[in-house]
Design brief:
Blueprint: E1 3-4, H1 6-16, E2 24-33, E3 36-44, E4 52-56, E5 59-63, H2 68-71, E6 75-81, E7 84-90, E8 96-97, E9 103-105
Length: about 110
């Protein structure tokens, strides 16, 4: 399971409101980060039959089966501060991470 904080739900909702009624947040990992795997987000209206969908309040998160083992148990927050705004992921599967928090190593 992936959990979005109230701040993350609010931000995702504000992004998706202009994308249409079928818009969902796609969360994934790819192998191009400085620490190993990097987090990715996108907007989609397409869900594959083997995707996991998580409905939380008025937001639907879609995760592909390859990314799921690396994201399971994560908490996604949204931070809006003096140094900038970003999604912040607390990932119990990360053994180490880069300084900016955009990538992690699960091994």
């Amino acid at each position: 399971m992936i959990t979005l904080t109230e701040a993350a739900i609010k931000k995702v909702s504000s992004i998706l409101v202009n994308e249409g009624p079928e818009a969902k947040l796609r969360m994934y990992v790819s192998g191009k980060g400085c620490a190993g795997l990097t987090y990715g987000f996108g907007i989609t209206d397409h869900v594959e039959s083997d995707d996991l969908t998580i409905d939380q309040d008025d937001v639907t998160v879609v995760i592909d089966p390859d990314s799921l083992p690396y994201l399971r148990g994560s908490v996604v927050d949204f931070i809006d501060g003096l140094t900038g705004s970003k999604f912040d992921i607390k990932n119990p599967n990360a053994k180490s991470a880069c300084g900016c928090g955009d990538s992690f190593n699960p091994y």
